Amino acid sequence: MTKTHRAGLAALLVGGGLLVGVLLTTGFEWTAPTQSQERAEKHLLGAQGEAPGDLMALETLSKAFVRVAQIVNPSVVTISSERVIRPASRGGRPSMPEDHPFREFFGDDFFDRFWQGPQGPDEDLRSRGLGSGVIVSDDGYILTNNHVVADAEQIKVVVMDGRELTAKLIGADRESDVALIKVDTKGLPAIRFGDSDRLEVGEWVVAVGSPFSENLAHTVTAGIVSAKGRTHVGIVDFEDFIQTDAAINPGNSGGALVNLRGELVGINTAIATRSGFYQGVGFAIPVSMARKVMDDLLNQGKVVRGWLGVVIQSLDEDLASGLKLGSKRGVLVNDVSPGGPADRAGIRRGDVILEFEGTEVKDADHLQSLVAGRDPGSPATLRIHRDGKDRKVSAGLGERPSNPQQAMRGGSESEGDQETKSTPAASLGFSVEPLTPALARELGYTGEEGVVVGGVDRGGPASQKNIRRGDLIQEVNGKAITSVKEFEAAIKDLKPGEAALLLILRDETTFFTAVRVPEEKK
């Protein structure tokens, strides 16, 4: 047998082995269907060979996704941006700061590849970024993310028919991560706007964009709305994200999130991931927010937001208990801007805002988004809790300043931990001392009254609530405190499990916190 014949026989044996394997797995019944197979086919197709209702329903759903892709794809574009990065040796800054919030969501490796080019020791770098956008008018306006086009010197847009167009930045809003760009052409297929407020958790949605590269433009993925109103994500100042499990990857940023009617309900923004790639959780800006930003940029050249003029903090269980509230829903007013909208409406420090325009307030971020979503000058009705009673107040909103005072949310880690003396305050894990004139000058508490936190037990109740050495305690359970004696009298009757509601001044900002006396160990 020749070498060629042996090779041919080996190939035949391999092929034959595969064929035998197939025959074995089917019991050699490969020439005609078995009775069980015929019964299964009849069950699936029905007596007349027609698909049953459940199978037809699945086909209808499948065709719905096809129709959505056909409708939406022409309205989604690929965006490439280019900017110059100066190396640190010449006074430049890194292309993406190490503490930038998007690093957490997209991963370090992605940003190293997404934003940086080949690096020379003292040469300017040309960095190229990739993202997506949504055509919102036939004359060339396109919505996208601010981080897709931020600081770009050149913006290119590729439409579905392959044309590459130069775009200019109309305006951007870093606080919501929305940007509006425009290309100089007409007759573009504009997307239809939907109503993101009517979205329901569990509803099907489709994401369209250009993940990873231009070669993957117009990628369509499907999923459901996993959650709505997501805050505390840590990406931007104003967060009210739609959460979805539709696959979103780097490059999808700025692309469309649509419902099964092909209507735009969100602008895809970020993913929660440890690898830099899709892991089942993505976030989109509701179209209601994105559209307001777009309208403001077009009509006023900037984004205008409502402003209430309060410094607020979210409630925890101890604060809610100290305020005698049934739950920790709502926000606590730490301070009121003199002459601001809240001040004119009669809102006071220590009030708890429970509702804003009929919407129950979940936390400080939620109220901030609700207020910011209203136009300056518009009226707003609030339900507040004060002195054990609920009441309604009306406020005329102002315009949010460019640099409003940041709301305190409890400070940071305790400083100057040391053992406390055996006083009534010791059960709360800290000590206090009088505010002498010399100490007031040292700490900057000129003209203020209260008692100063002297020491904080490491790991104690006060430490866990981020009370620091040098904090000025001005009130206990709503009563003004001017001396150590008054402070000790105010807390001496606290029983294990009960909390003291403290008003604290720190760095020219006041805030409330509640410290609970530890339960006695059994």
Describe the structure.
With 522 residues, the protein is an alpha+beta fold. It has four domains: 75-183, Thrombin, subunit H; 192-300, Beta Barrel (Thrombin, subunit H); 306-399, PDZ domain (Pdz3 Domain, Roll), CATH 2.30.42; 424-516, Pdz3 Domain (Roll). Helix content is 24%, strand content 31%. It contains 13 helices and 27 strands. The protein has helices spanning 3-25, 35-45, 53-72, 101-106, 108-115, 146-149, 287-300, 317-322, 341-345, 364-372, 437-443, 461-464, 484-491; strands at residues 76-85, 125-135, 141-145, 154-158, 164-173, 178-183, 192-193, 204-209, 219-230, 241-244, 256-258, 263-271, 282-286, 306-307, 310-314, 331-336, 352-356, 359-360, 379-386, 389-396, 398-399, 430-434, 451-456, 472-476, 479-480, 499-506, 509-516. The chain has a six-stranded antiparallel β-barrel. Strands 8-9-10-13-12-11 form a six-stranded antiparallel β-barrel. Strands 15, 16, 17, 18, 19 and 20 form a six-stranded antiparallel beta sheet that branches. It is elongated and about 85 Å long. The chain starts with a helix and ends in a 6-residue tail after the last strand. 39% of the residues are buried.
Map the helices and strands.
Elements: H1 3-25, H2 35-45, H3 53-72, E1 76-85, H4 101-106, H5 108-115, E2 125-135, E3 141-145, H6 146-149, E4 154-158, E5 164-173, E6 178-183, E7 192-193, E8 204-209, E9 219-230, E10 241-244, E11 256-258, E12 263-271, E13 282-286, H7 287-300, E14 306-307, E15 310-314, H8 317-322, E16 331-336, H9 341-345, E17 352-356, E18 359-360, H10 364-372, E19 379-386, E20 389-396, E21 398-399, E22 430-434, H11 437-443, E23 451-456, H12 461-464, E24 472-476, E25 479-480, H13 484-491, E26 499-506, E27 509-516
